[in-house]
Amino acid sequence: MASTNKFRYTSGTQPIAGSAALLGVGNANVRDNDPYFDTQHHTWQGRAMAVIRSNGKRGKAVITVNGSRLTVNVR
Fold this sequence. Notes:
mainly beta, 5-stranded antiparallel sheet, two-stranded antiparallel ribbon
């Protein structure tokens, strides 16, 4: 695998908090063997993707992404 950068979707002990659910993660690298249904994944060419949907509850969702050189909070 070309990349050694790994990122994590976390919010405390849960990958997603609030009114959303994490369905899968990916990076578009066809040679990547990381599972799609995990809370962490390798980046590919500095990119990553998360598939998130509503869990049917009303309210806001909080998604936190962490990596060795990044932290992103999406609300």
